[in-house]
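Sequence in, structure out.
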Amino acid sequence: MITVADEALLRRAIAVSARAVELGDAPYGSLLAGPDGTVLAEAHNTVRRDDDITAHPELKLARWAARELDPEVAARTTMYTSCQPCGMCAGAIVRSGLGRVVFALATEQLVELNPESGAWPVVAQDGPALFETARGPVEAYYRRS
């Protein structure tokens, strides 16, 4: 359920996306709000500026959260973002331990506004394969821990 406080923070994330456009960057912005609603960090998309396909704001903030927040705090932290996180960012959000994401535009809505954003091809994947060979390094690593 999205609250009035959520809406205010989501509007701020959208404002970050608008500022990104003013700076010549893609129109995506995000922020992290701590358990008490305090904004902890903000970021916008800098894929073109940084020549880095991973420079999505959600990924930047997930990395920041994983480095800077205690797991208990991260679990009570909310990411507010102008668009629904892509698969890459969603994976990073899960790994960072963040507790919640609130987004403005769903992926389907973004594709309606910019059909090119939905034009990514599906990459073929084959596997699993070589289980007996691949398990060795994994088991060795986890036996050390």
